[in-house]
User: Which sequence fits this backbone?
């Protein structure tokens, strides 16, 4: 691998505004970082975070991730915090030498850091001192190594970066499986025997929950408090309500939930490592597979992040097409979410099928424009892949003006006042606004709790600042409001679509020449969009080569799950299914 | 308010859906039968009412031109040659790296020759992204519309080699009419340019 040349030449961030205040307060413990933000010394990190949250008003921790600067010999944890009134991020970083790999945990400041720190521990091997429950989250206990470290190699490892030289000009086909499985491609300790490898995740899980442990030895770890008989129920990974392979370990007191712990990673494929092997463009179709209901908006988020690094802007028509696709995607997603929420409530498939009926028509449009119904792969850096015809626009208008309003109105009539739905949903799974912010929830979950935070308004991207629409907000924070807000948001999406379809100009759809291999200037960028499920962020670090040095995804489904325990506590076990349905997760994105 | 009104209203919606599909059936009965192939798109289109099921595999909906599945290589029937020059761009851009190309060499000189000696696409890995077709500078690889690839065996039958991948350009013209028209127009333009140049030289 070539050394990231950036280390020497990288410009230091200017300390203006809030960063200057931070510097003034903490003195030498705060230093400007490369490209953006500040580096805060580990000793004052927690104190500084509290200052950032309470005094500077950056209450919302959007993203937390780690980067392995192997050449320089340290790990860097990057935090992006936002104000709820909108505006740009406050970026701060913490560093630790690779040999030490310990950083103070910020869970005490932002409980929303919980899963994200566990992810950083799991994949990058950074210990977060003071984290209440630091165990692996996507991989299993007993897995050897931390895969996102730059010196870790996956089993079918071929080369550091694509394109692989074995494919051309003398590309004799070799199937990955035919390469020797335990060849020196794989690094494992000499004394390690695969037969002895043991998955101890469950023990750790139950110990963490204060439950019995160590099945083989029978040794019990007694909870300290008064002993009552509590029951542990495993829901999933194969459970019809979990929308995929997702497991919830629920501790019950009678029928009441005392504690719920999500267990995930069954669909984990180390998307981020694949992404760092890929060239920038090659990641585009991979983003389709994150939240596979919303591939168009995933594309948009990634395109925006890379365009930030490249410093280019797509032409007008492409911007409009992007917005049209993204808003259609929102409608698709919310129809799907509502349909399957009703499934979870026991209204088996009739509402879901009514919802999907409309979705099919939108997917027809996607198929015609992009070539695929779900894996759209439609956006390119500085534009979109294909233009649409006038006939396409006409049909989209037909949907937006006639069909979809009728369908949404019908769905509303069908479900909203249904007494059974009301009695199952109202007052269930309440997430108060302060907790919704503290847990870094995003999207409909956050807005149903009374926080009108929408990236399209808070930090407008693409051309959203031109459209007239309201940020939907509901105040009860229960399952019913999370259902209603999706209906509200569909109406707003229709408003945006009407404006966009009327105003769309003719012209180019791609800025400059489309390239498959381009050099992206060295730098760091965090691009975020308001995906139907919440804020989707891409954190990219470029070292100037054709492949991203770091490619991280802030997945809304994943982070929204941090609050699941909080929402379920005290409810009956039957409500778990409904509460999970109201968060609306897609496991492709949770597990990545 | 009386408890249950909401439920009754909801049931009304279900009833409406139920009846609507039959009303449509009757309407299309008068237009020449329920299952006329020409009606399929309309009955699944934005103006349709009620749920209508296409009886796959007996019936199939027409595919849009842009539809992409596994790629195929275009065989130029006019000049009787494979269009691919084995330049390797598609193998480089392919995200899962499932294209394998052996560049052709001239046996007499040992120099590279613009035709692939072997060309593999591992269809088990291909993610149908369409980049190969998008970035091929010679219009030599296109995305197929044939999506029925199921087989009894996972390996050999899904590793597509050159003979399996080659399809005549007439097939390409048939499934991608507007793309084909663009290609022809570009060819014409090039010819015209050449003629102009020749004329200018003369
Ligand atoms: S198919 Fe096209 S891109 Fe691929 S090697 Fe042949 S000419 Fe090059
Ligand atoms: S469609 Fe995509 S994945 Fe398939 S061969 Fe072409 S570039 Fe590769």
Assistant:
């Amino acid at each position: 691998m070539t050394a990231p040349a950036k280390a020497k030449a990288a410009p230091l961030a200017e300390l203006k505004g809030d960063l200057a205040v931070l510097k003034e307060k903490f003195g030498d413990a705060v230093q400007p970082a490369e490209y953006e933000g500040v580096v805060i010394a580990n000793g004052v990190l927690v104190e500084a975070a509290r200052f950032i949250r309470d005094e500077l008003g950056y209450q919302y921790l959007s993203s937390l991730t780690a980067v392995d600067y192997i050449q320089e010999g340290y790990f860097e944890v990057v935090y992006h915090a936002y104000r709820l009134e909108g505006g740009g991020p406050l970026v701060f970083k913490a560093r630790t030498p690779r040999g030490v790999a310990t950083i103070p945990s910020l869970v005490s400041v932002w409980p929303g850091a919980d899963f994200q720190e566990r992810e950083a521990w799991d994949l990058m091997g950074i210990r977060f001192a003071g984290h209440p429950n630091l165990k692996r989250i996507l991989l299993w206990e007993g897995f050897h190594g931390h895969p996102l470290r730059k010196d870790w190699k996956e089993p079918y490892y071929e080369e550091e970066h694509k394109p692989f030289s074995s494919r051309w000009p003398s590309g004799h086909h070799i199937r990955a499986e035919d390469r020797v499985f335990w060849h020196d491609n794989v690094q494992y300790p000499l004394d390690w025997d695969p037969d002895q490898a043991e998955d101890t995740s469950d023990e750790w899980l139950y110990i963490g929950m204060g439950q019995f442990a160590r099945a083989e030895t029978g040794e019990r770890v007694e909870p300290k408090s008064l002993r009552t008989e509590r029951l542990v129920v495993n829901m999933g990974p194969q459970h019809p309500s979990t929308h995929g392979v997702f497991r919830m370990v629920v501790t019950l007191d009678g029928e009441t939930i005392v504690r719920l712990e999500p267990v995930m990673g069954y669909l984990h494929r180390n998307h981020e490592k694949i992404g760092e092997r890929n060239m920038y463009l090659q990641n585009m179709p991979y983003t389709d597979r994150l939240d596979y209901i919303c591939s168009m908006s995933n594309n948009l988020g990634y395109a925006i992040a890379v365009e930030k690094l490249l410093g280019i802007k797509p032409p007008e028509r492409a911007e409009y097409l992007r917005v049209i696709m993204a808003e259609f995607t929102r409608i698709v997603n919310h129809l799907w979410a509502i349909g399957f929420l009703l499934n979870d409530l026991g209204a088996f498939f009739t509402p879901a099928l009514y919802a999907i009926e409309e979705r099919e028509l939108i997917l027809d449009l996607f198929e015609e424009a992009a070539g695929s119904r779900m894996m759209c792969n439609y956006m390119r850096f500085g534009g979109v892949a294909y233009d649409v015809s006038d006939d396409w626009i006409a049909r989209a208008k037909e949907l937006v003006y006639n069909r979809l309003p009728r369908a949404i109105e019908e769905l509303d009539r069908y479900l909203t006042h249904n007494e059974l739905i009301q009695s199952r949903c109202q007052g269930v799974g309440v997430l108060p606004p302060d907790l919704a912010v503290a847990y870094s929830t995003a999207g409909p979950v956050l807005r149903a709790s009374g926080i009108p935070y929408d990236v399209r308004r808070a930090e407008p991207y693409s051309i959203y600042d031109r459209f007239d629409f309201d940020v939907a907000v509901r105040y009860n924070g229960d399952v019913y409001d999370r259902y209603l807000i999706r209906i509200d948001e569909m109406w707003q999406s229709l408003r945006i679509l009407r404006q966009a379809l009327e105003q769309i100009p003719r012209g180019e759809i791609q800025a400059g020449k489309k390239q498959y291999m381009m050099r992206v200037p060295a730098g760091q960028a965090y691009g975020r969009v308001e995906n139907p499920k919440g804020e989707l962020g891409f954190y990219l670090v470029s070292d100037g080569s054709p492949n991203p040095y770091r490619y991280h995804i802030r997945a809304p489904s994943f982070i929204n799950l941090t609050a699941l325990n909080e929402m379920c506590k005290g409810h009956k076990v039957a409500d778990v299914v409904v509460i999970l349905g109201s968060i609306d997760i897609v496991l492709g994105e949770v597990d990545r | 308010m009386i408890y249950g009104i909401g439920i009754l209203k909801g049931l009304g919606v279900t009833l409406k859906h139920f009846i609507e599909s039959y009303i449509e059936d009757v309407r299309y009965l008068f237009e020449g039968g329920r299952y006329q192939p020409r009606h399929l798109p309309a009955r699944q289109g934005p103006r349709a009412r009620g749920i209508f099921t296409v009886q796959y595999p007996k019936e199939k909906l027409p595919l849009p031109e842009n539809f992409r599945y596994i790629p195929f290589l275009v065989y130029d029937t006019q000049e009787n040659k494979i269009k691919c020059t084995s330049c390797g761009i598609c193998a480089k851009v392919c995200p899962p790296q499932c294209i394998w190309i052996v560049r052709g060499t001239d046996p007499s000189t040992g120099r590279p020759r613009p035709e692939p000696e072997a060309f593999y696409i591992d269809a088990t890995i291909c993610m149908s992204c369409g980049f190969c077709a998008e970035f091929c500078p010679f219009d030599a690889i296109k995305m197929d519309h044939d999506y029925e690839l199921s087989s009894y065996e996972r390996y050999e039958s899904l590793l597509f080699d050159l003979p399996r991948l080659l399809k005549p350009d007439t097939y390409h013209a048939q499934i991608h009419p507007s793309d084909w028209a663009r290609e022809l127009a570009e060819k014409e333009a090039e010819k015209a340019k050449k003629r102009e140049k020749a004329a200018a030289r003369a």
